[in-house]
Amino acid sequence: MNLYKRLVLFFIFLFITRTLVGDFNIFKQRKIVIGEFQNRGDPDYDYISESLGTRLYTYVILIPFITVDDEERAFLENLSKTDEFKSAFIEAGDVIGYRLTPDIEQRPFTGIGLPFSERSWPMYIYGSYKVLTEDDTRVSLYVYNSMTGRLIADYKTQTTLYSLLNEPHTYFIPFFKHFLKYTIYTATIETEPEDSLIFIDERLVGIGSAQNILIPRGQHRLTIKNDGYRDYTDFINVTGDDFYIKVDLKETEDPRILLVLTDPSEADVYLNEAFLGKTPLEISLAEGYQTLTFVKEGHDRLVINTNNLSPDEKTLNLKLSTPKLTQDQYLQAETHLKRAKILSYTGIGMLGVSILLGREKTLYDQNEDLGANRYEDLHLKTNIFTYLTVASSIITGGIFAFSFLEMIRYFIRYGETPGATTDQKPPAGYPGTSNIELLKTEVRF
User: Fold this and answer.
1) Quick one: which H or E segment has residue 335?
2) Which of 31, 56, 129, 409 has its CA 20 to 30 A from that of 439?
3) pLDDT digits (tens, 9 = 90+) for 275-311
4) Quick one: fold of 256-323+438-444?
5) Which CATH class is domain 183-252?
6) Any idea what the Cα angle at residue 217 is, between residues 214 and 218, rounded to 5°?
């Protein structure tokens, strides 16, 4: 798009954003009416009037907000209590802010016979000039506040005819610093290419360059856009006049086309979790970090970071691996292992019981030999401990046998899949494990 078209769009955009954005609400917006510049001197210089009015308009439309003083707030508070404006006040959230968005309009008046009866109570900005000589030109700028009923700015300066025509910032900027009730500084922003759109705090302020624009003091978001170039966004901190920055936009690269093949084919392909299709598939990759995911039933999921691919790579050939164990097989094998461990621990406990029973039986055997005639009941107790020891030993042996059997089943379950090993990792999706496992890949250049 050439510079002329962008300039046309720039002014159309400003017109729409300043005049057609919803109905005017006096509690949210401040009406500003821009008039003409009256020539108070030689009629040969009447042609300058229209040019000055247009340039004044281009400065005013870039004003971010208008502050509301105490007298204006009192006026608006009284207005909010009237039936005519009660609904507008409710629409504004029952609040009168200290900053109002400018609602700008340009009309052909010179400050004489102002329409004071307007129900929007605007601020009227207008001016005059007088060319005495080429080196002595007088410029006057006025602001009449119809809310307070008085002139709130009366700015006069002396300049040259050349500056009047070619350097409007030399008198407009001092005027706005005098008129606005907050600190503003001048800034110049240049771009390459020269037809780039310049935004400050999401407001369009220029195309290609923004010369000597007025920006409130502090930090602002600068955004520059152009077709075929990467958007530029950064924060600028304006702390004084003559702030300057030049931004060179970087061209965007054409999307990279990558042919993806898988073995087996018909694998689902996802780019950043968005489904693209099935392999074989051509993929358009933009710049930056992205992930490709390949899913095929009966095979392990494969995830690839595109930043790890060679910039010159055109074809990606991937082999999807078959899982060594299905999830059911893994769960069954782990169940056998858990049972074997439980039985082993139980068997160890029963072995300890058997040892204690055997010890007690031995003690009673000794007591029985020493005092059989005196302790007739020792024989019965000896027999009881004998039976308990034998039973405990049999149970212990059985527990160890079952534990050994569960271990055999554990190894058999793992051995059902060729090439399986006992250090097999849980399959994808098993609780507590990653559901994505990067397996063998083969890249073809």
Assistant:
1) helix 327-370
2) 409
3) 888 888 888 777 666 788 888 887 888 888 877 777 7
4) Immunoglobulin-like (2.60.40)
5) mainly beta
6) 125
Q: What is the per-residue pLDDT across 7-47, written as a single tens digit (0 to 9) for each? A: 555 555 555 444 444 478 899 999 999 988 999 999 999 99
User: Which overall architecture, per CATH, does domain 3-181 show?
Assistant: 3-Layer(aba) Sandwich (3.40)
User: Cβ distance 60 to 76 under 8 Å?
Assistant: no
Which residues are CB-neighbours of 277 under 8 A, at least 6 positions away? 268, 269
The SS3 call for residue 175 is helix
Short-list 202, 186, 210, 196, CA closest to 235: 202
Q: Would you call 207 exposed, middle or buried from its count of C-beta atoms within 10 A (0-12, 13-18, 19+)?
A: buried
Whole-angstrom distance, CA of residue 191 vs CA of residue 295? 46
Q: What gap in Å lies between CA 127 and CA 157, rounded to an integer?
A: 12
**Phi and psi (nearest 5°) for 276?**
-105, -35
Q: Where are the beta strands (DSSP E) in 107-250?
A: 123-133, 136-145, 150-159, 184-192, 197-200, 203-207, 209-216, 218-225, 232-238, 243-248
